TrEMBL record:
The chain crosses the membrane at residues 41-62, 68-86, 98-114, 120-138. One of its GO terms (cellular component) is cytoskeleton. InterPro entries: MFS_trans_sf, Prenylated_rab_accept_PRA1. It comes from the Eukaryota. This is PRA1 family protein. Keywords: Acetylation, Cell membrane, Cytoplasm, Cytoskeleton, Endoplasmic reticulum, Membrane, Transmembrane, Transmembrane helix. It comes from Synaphobranchus kaupii (Kaup's arrowtooth eel). One of its GO terms (biological process) is negative regulation of transport. It is a multi-pass membrane protein. Belongs to the PRA1 family. It is found in: Cell membrane; Cytoplasm, Cytoskeleton; Endoplasmic reticulum membrane; Membrane. PANTHER family: PRA1 FAMILY PROTEIN 3, PRA1 PROTEIN. Its main location: membrane.
Length: 190
């Protein structure tokens, strides 16, 4: 088993270079878009963590109780969904067949629980907005050679990172998505 490694903080000119390294994702090819997002999440995970922490701290400074409550609710819902996917066959099958819908369901349940406590705006700005920033960057940032190489090393199990473990818990590994793509292409050829 590979030991856990924290990805290095990527330089600013690599993380946010000029417009030539960004492109609109091809929404007609969802698998390619998903691969780009997963790849960038793994490669820039420390940069994304820094962005999330900055926004989280700004909102937390403005409403500390709401942020603590929001973070606790999201963490508990996430841990509950991962536990449910491991121990309940129905949830496990749903997660395997619809990984993106599973993630959206986790976010929806978190949102619903936050609305019960009256902290929806704190949730939106403190938790959802940073996730939206990360998703927008991961969707539009083109991969480079170092990015692809780093992801292949993690994909074959030579090393593990915190984001890799989270993506694995959500069934969002690139190699599984590639297998699905190969299966769909073979079915389309028949």
């Amino acid at each position: 088993m590979a030991k856990m490694e924290i990805a290095p903080l990527r330089p600013w000119d690599d993380f946010f270079p000029g417009t030539e390294r960004f492109a609109k994702p091809d929404i007609s090819d969802l698998i390619k878009w998903n691969n780009r997002v997963v790849s960038n999440l793994l490669y820039y995970q420390t940069n994304y963590l820094a962005v999330v922490l900055v926004v989280f701290m700004i909102v937390g400074f403005l409403n500390p109780l709401g942020m603590i409550l929001g973070g606790a609710v999201v963490a508990l819902v996430f841990m509950g969904s991962v536990w449910g996917a491991e121990n309940k066959v129905m949830i496990k099958n749903f997660k395997k067949k619809n990984p993106t819908l599973f993630v959206l369901a986790v976010m929806g349940v978190s949102y619903f629980l936050m609305s019960l406590f009256g902290g929806v705006l704190v949730f939106i700005f403190g938790i959802t907005f940073p996730m939206l920033l990360v998703f927008a960057h991961a969707s539009t940032r083109l991969r480079n050679l170092k990015n692809k190489l780093e992801n292949k090393i993690e994909g074959v199990g030579l090393k593990k990172s915190p984001m890799g473990i989270i993506l694995e818990a959500l069934d969002q590994q690139e190699e599984k998505i590639n297998k699905i793509q190969d299966f769909l292409e073979s079915k389309m050829k028949q």
